[in-house]
Design brief:
10 strands; six-stranded antiparallel beta sheet; four-stranded antiparallel beta sheet; Jelly Rolls; 2 domains; 434 Repressor (Amino-terminal Domain); alpha+beta; about 200 residues; 5 helices
């Protein structure tokens, strides 16, 4: 039904809002401190925590780094959750949490035609692996990207800034992100008031 999509968007906004707030508080960070570390505006972060702003892939990755968590800890682990920034769309296929606290996430990745997206560094020890299914991608650490045609794959360290680029038409593929243990499990606390602690 057409009205289902707004409901899913609202549900995703609230899920992300609760998770960001709980993780920020568990780490003893104020809104201002997290915003500075993530390189985003305090107003943007406040709106995200209030559930008043749709999260973009770019913003969630910017927050995941300072919070020390993989993307799915912010997005939620429900298969099919999708987040986009206009250039890259990532739809969650599966998440596996390991006994040691590490996480493996698998996404269906779509890169817009001639689009480029720079991703900030993730937690040290993170490894990304992209298998291109359709199109031609240039991916990897900044200034050391590799051209990957359909049917081939490339792995790189996600612990440094890296980029995704489609060089001909829309590029699609399977992105696997392996994040090592962070030493801190995310709290699943309910949303709290949005005022700065």
């Amino acid at each position: 039904m057409p009205e289902d999509k707004p409901d899913r968007n609202a549900s995703l906004r609230l899920t992300v809002a609760r998770r960001i707030t709980a993780l920020r508080r568990a780490r003893g960070l104020s809104l201002s401190a997290l915003a500075v570390q993530a390189g985003i505006g305090k107003g943007t972060l406040s709106e995200l925590e209030a559930g008043a702003r749709n999260p973009t892939l770019e913003t969630l990755y910017a927050l995941a780094g300072p919070l020390g968590v993989p993307l799915s800890r912010l997005l939620g682990e429900e298969t099919g959750h999708s987040v986009s920034d206009g250039v890259v769309d990532a739809r969650l296929l599966t998440v596996q949490r390991h006994d040691d606290g590490g996480t493996t996430e698998v996404f269906w990745l779509t890169i817009a035609e001639q689009g480029t997206r720079v991703s900030p560094a993730h937690q040290p020890g993170t490894v990304e692996h992209l298998r291109v299914v359709r199109g031609l991608a240039r991916v990897g650490p900044l200034h050391a990207e590799r051209l990957v045609p359909a049917g081939e794959a490339h792995s790189w360290s996600g612990g440094t800034a890296h980029s995704y680029r489609s060089t001909s038409g829309i590029t699609e593929g399977i992105l696997t992100i392996e994040t090592p243990p962070s030493g801190m499990q995310p709290p699943d606390a309910p949303a709290a008031p949005t005022g700065e602690p």
